[in-house]
Design brief:
17 helices; disordered N terminus; 17 strands; 5-stranded parallel sheet; binds iron/sulfur cluster; 2 domains; alpha/beta; Rossmann fold; pyruvate-formate lyase- activating enzyme; 480 residues
């Protein structure tokens, strides 16, 4: 019911604004690497405070049913990563069928860069990485049955995320300890955006070198509510936890002071691990269990193209530093780029053997192919655009082929092995051995005997094996 006489301005975005009728809003998370999303919980908190009736749907766990979408006036899909966007596009026809009168919105990093395609698929409103003000403004417009264009230039303050409409933490990815123990994992964010400009990164076109801290008090409130739900470990989903090193330290200190038994993990770039090496022992004492780091390549030329601000030697140093501190390292890679060679790929595998990192690298990391979405800073790299095909909405990026077709063929074969390894629950060591063989077969050279008697210690890992920039599997595309 909409009261035309509602005295509240639709632009009054303050926390005290209360709408005069309950607008039914459905927030959908297509994929968040098995983590309970902060981006839905924060949006839900604001929309509820505004008086909306909010339902959340996790596409990896819940079916899109008529019941879930009945009466929805606003359906907002969170597109925080490539895989999520691909899954969302598959789900859109069903969403439109089940909620024909809902206004469709997409938000998150991948929404603005895919705006044109999303609009062609029926998405009416596109919001970026700071969506809350826009969602509130949109809700107000819908309440008042206005179709005014949205100009969400404001940001709202962070408030305690509302996780009550999301499935319980126990149904999300858990932490697997090397001894087989299992820990319930919570997920929060201490910052949004990133101060770096790595050319391939999806954060860059949206945040353009800026980041925003979530206040310590809000982060702790969010952690507290997840510990109350059973979290024994917290994953920080910041693009880079050490963009604000003092902020990160304060959070780690507060977390440890209040919950000394809770461990945590964070994503930290190689450059920051070196620059802020002095903070690492304290982070370790505060519970830092493992660090995910986007190494991407071990070829300095490729690292330069990606503008990563680290070298192969820096990566090796970091492996030693973290080992010395007993902090596990979970490196991520983009092994297949237009600059990759077969020998370079074998060099990457050999380095993982040498550094005893086989158990530290998820098999999917060995098959990732460089994505070039619209707005990618790679397009600013001299001569790069001319080597690309057209933008292909089906893959949400520019198509490219490697000048050596054997490299593209190897990437496809590696991904086939990775998917099979995932299905058959092969160990990392088994998957690595198969990929080692494939890589050498591609060069028509005999594969040297793989000496993996000591593949390195198993590290704590999250139970979700897939990744944010990998092509979705058939199962992921059909599960809803
Ligand atoms: S890759 Fe990491 S460090 Fe680089 S811009 Fe993206 S989030 Fe920042």
């Amino acid at each position: 019911m909409v009261h035309a006489s509602c005295p509240q301005s639709p632009k009054a975005l303050g926390p005290d604004h209360k709408s005069c009728a309950a607008l039914r809003v459905v927030l959908i998370n297509p994929y968040e690497i098995g983590r309970q999303p902060f981006a839905l919980a924060e949006a839900a908190a604001w929309l509820r405070q505004r008086g909306c009736e909010v339902t959340c749907i996790e596409l990896s766990q819940q079916r899109l049913t008529a019941d879930a979408l009945v009466g929805a006036r606003l359906v907002a899909l969170f597109l925080g990563m490539h895989t999520a966007t691909r899954i969302a596009i598959e789900a859109l026809p069903r969403i439109r069928r089940l909620a024909p009168s809902a206004h469709l919105c997409a938000y998150g990093l991948y929404a603005p860069v895919n705006a044109a395609y999303l609009r062609a698929q029926g998405i009416e409103t596109i919001l970026g990485g700071e969506p809350e003000a826009g969602l509130l403004e949109l809700a107000d417009h819908l309440q008042q049955e206005k179709a005014a264009p949205l100009t969400p230039t404001q940001r709202v303050a962070f408030i305690k995320p509302d996780r009550s409409a999301l499935p319980p933490l126990s149904s999300y990815a858990h932490l697997r300890m090397p001894d087989g123990a299992r820990k319930t994992a919570g997920f929060t964010e201490a910052t949004r955006g990133c101060k770096h400009l790595c050319r391939h990164c999806p954060v860059v076109p949206v945040y353009q070198g800026r980041f925003r801290a979530v206040p310590l008090g809000i982060v702790m409130e969010d952690i507290r509510q997840q510990v109350a739900q059973g979290a024994q470990h917290i994953s920080f989903g910041d693009p880079d936890f050490l963009n604000g090193p003092m902020h990160a330290l304060r959070i780690a200190r507060a977390l440890h002071a209040e919950f000394p038994a809770i461990s945590f993990d964070a994503t930290i770039k190689i450059q920051h691990l070196l620059q802020h090496q002095a903070t690492l022992p304290e982070l370790k004492r505060a519970g830092l269990l493992f660090v995910t780091s986007a190494v991407e390549a071990v070829d300095d030329r490729i690292l330069e193209f990606l503008d990563k601000n680290h070298t192969r030697a820096d990566f090796v140093r970091v492996v030693g530093i973290l080992r010395g501190l007993d902090i596990a390292l979970s490196p991520t890679f983009i092994p297949f780029t237009p600059w990759t060679t077969l020998d370079g790929y074998i060099e990457l595998l050999s380095m993982l053997v040498e550094l005893k990192l086989i158990e530290s690298v998820a098999p999917v990391q060995l098959g990732i192919r460089l994505l070039v979405p619209e707005g990618s800073y790679l397009l600013k790299l001299e001569g790069f655009r001319s080597g690309l095909g057209d933008f292909d909405p089906e893959i949400l990026g520019y198509r490219w082929s490697h000048p050596d077709p054997r490299v593209d063929a190897l990437q496809r074969e590696v991904m086939t092995v990775v998917e099979a390894a995932d299905r058959r629950r092969l160990s990392r060591r088994e998957a690595f051995a198969a990929i080692w063989q494939l890589a050498h077969d591609a060069t028509r050279r005999a594969a040297p005997t793989l000496d993996i008697a000591d593949p390195g210690s198993a590290i704590p890992t999250m139970s979700e094996n897939w990744y944010c920039c990998a092509e979705p599997t058939e199962q992921q595309l059909q599960q809803f």
